[in-house]
Amino acid sequence: MNIQPNKHLLSLAIAASIVANQAVAEEDEQSSTAMEEVLVTGGKEAINTLAGSAHLLDEEMLEQFDFSDLNQVLATLPGVYIRQEDGFGLRPNIGLRGVTSERSQKITLMEDGVLIKPAPYSAPAAYYIPNISRMSAVEVVKGPAAIKNGPNNVGGAINLVTQPVPQTSEGFIDLSAGEYGYQKYQVFYGNKHGNFGYWVDALQYGSDGFKELDGGGDTGFTRNDVNAKLQWSFDDLWGFEQLVTLKVGYADEDADETYLGLTQSDFDDNPVRRYAATQLAHFESEHTQIHFDHGLTVSDNLTLNTKLYFNEFERAWRKVDGFISGVPIATVLERPDLFPRELGIIRGTLDTVNTPNETLDITTNDREYGSSGIQLKMDYAFTTGDINHQLEVGVRYHHDYIERDHSTEGYLMQAGNLVNDGLDWGNKTLNKAETDALAVYVHDTLEWNRWTFNAGLRIEDIRSEATDYLNQTQDEITQSVVAPGLGAFWQFSESLGFLVGVNKGFSPAGATAGDDADPEEALNLEYGLRYTAANLSGEVIGFFSDYKNLLGRCRASDTGCNVGEEFNGGGVQVSGVEIYGQYDVALAQSLEMPIALSYTYTESAFQDAFESSFSQWGNVSEGDELPYLPEHTGRLQVGLKGLKWDAFVAVNHQSEMRNQAGSAAISQGLHTDAYTTVDVSGSWNPTPAWLLQLSIDNATDEEAVVSWRPFGARPLKPRTARARVRYSF
């Protein structure tokens, strides 16, 4: 692909960065502390008066349960929707404020403020996500607060923040072990010598898996993650404070994971069963990243930041994808009474008759992704009359691509084992897509008396090209969007404030969307109050999203469509309320009881009737609700904290969800179960250097169908105990 105008824009952006840095350096020699720019919220203090919704989970909160599953971490916050799949969060399904949670494709995901999905424009499904165990904070922004982040800002953005470089020698060894062969090993060390600082972080974790494969076999995974951050700080380089950061990383995964679930009756008998047809399932991936960050403090009120980034991700997922021809495998599992022979082959209890209708399709979805870019940001503080301004101007040039090579093999079920049929079934998918995107935003935070206003504008120009080598077709898509946002926060009293905001949400069509797909656009409103006191804080925020067009995207697990194809859903309205609160109760001089509450209520409705070949929608009537959007989600956490110990109990609840759009009672159609789980954790610091921790996930061993996607009923992770030892030095 060769889009010459955008390549010129990249050259101009780099040149503009150099010229701007030199020009402002010559204007003002006053300096202040240069900071590595990794937070997108500005920190907890900034959130208190933010004219928009945002939350920050700091390292202390992440340590309370030491979750290695990002799903469990994000479930502590309101407005976040999780659809479980494998029980370990290997490929999370995360949605914000009603957007589909399918492979987290409709939210902006970042690491240290840099886009981190494998190909966020060309193929935005998040088959890679950073390991939460190496993060020091998690930020979630929604509504007008997300206008600075794109390309997907209908629901919002999530930023994963890595460890800062320590100012002195600092390190730890962290070891965990648990049921189902769970193991986690992490070693971290960092130091600073003069103006040079660094850290190195090595992480490995995995499990033997909790599922039971018919006939025996592995169902677990192993992940390795090695990262390093190098940092040079200069108090006076060419007359200015500057900070240069280089971060490099490598991660891989080896998992015996499958798309295939169970029928309802088999789930009722044994929810952790895995069918014999999944015995060859295997996922392998490698991820490399290089991120460069340069911060320049020009004066007390002017800073510049430049980020350069490169990410590459390769994966191959070999899994049962159905039968070579005949009935879709999802239909077999949903209606086993109609297809007993096909189900017997999947279970391994019946042998295949050598015909395409009974030959299992084992497809290896081999994909290569890449993303790279440069982003520039200027922060300028100034005053006009009685109004204080914090102006941000940002520019990002981004390029990403995906190459798909999905090859099919035929396998016969013989005496419970899969036997290759020796035929060449060729490629199922063979294509390439790439995108160049130029994004510009301007955002001003104005403070006047007790008022804080946020006014922002985001502009994106996106050019994509897709080549289908099997059908010998080539398509080009050009998209442009202007997305404004405005928010206001009124500090009514010292503790109580009110907020209101409106913004245009946008999610671009993918590079392989097809000629008929339109971008996703929505008008988002939010309104509420925020209370902040010494030991009590909380907020109640209502939200409303009015979609001009909802976009559905075909994945390998969808039937009747091509991977990457997209569908227009027309008008949809999503509304709800988010409640979040924290209360620290002092029980004694050295004993306190922290309480945290998170709750989200959501409702949705299609505004038009239409017929769709997209399997998640089907034939839609006006007023139908969206699939996989729970009406109620919530979490109540209560703890006790002493001088050297703490203990926490968290109760999590999620209501049932539809598998397909509809308006009849959820129980009348295929649906997930409502479930309530309890997590328990206790920690003890016998000395400042040592930490001992015992955690139990799903302590009541709740059983529930949490998803019917990709194929069949999927279970909750059963009760799992984990023990941890950490030594800091």
Largest sheet composition:
22 strands, antiparallel, barrel
Cα-atom radius of gyration: 26 Å
The tally of beta strands, per DSSP, is 38
Strand percentage, roughly? over 45%
Shape by Cα distribution:
globular
Poorly predicted segments: 1-34
Which structural class fits the helix and strand makeup? mainly beta
Helix content: under 10%
Question: How many separate helices?
Answer: 7
What gap, in angstroms, lies between the N and C termini? 51 Å
The overall pLDDT, averaged over residues, is: 92
Structure commentary:
By secondary structure, this protein is mainly β. It is built from seven helices and 38 strands. The strands form seven sheets. The chain has a 22-stranded antiparallel barrel. The protein has a five-stranded mixed sheet with strand order 1-6-7-4-5. It has a two-stranded antiparallel sheet with strand order 2-3. A hairpin with a 3-residue loop joins strand 32 and strand 33 (645-654). The longest helix has 24 residues, at 4-27. The protein is globular. The two termini are 51 Å apart. Mean pLDDT is 92; it is low at 1-34.
